[in-house]
Amino acid sequence: MLGRQPRQRPPRGGGFDIDRGGKGTGMKQQTFTILKPDTVAKRNCGAIIKRIEEEGFEIRGVKRVTLSEDQAKAFYAVHRERPFYRSLVTFMTEGPVWVMALDRDNAVEHLRRIMGATDPAKADAGTIRAQFASSIERNAIHGSDSPENARSEIAFFFAASELL
Ligand code: UDP
Ligand code: MG
Question: What is the pLDDT of residue 23?
Answer without folding.
Answer: 47
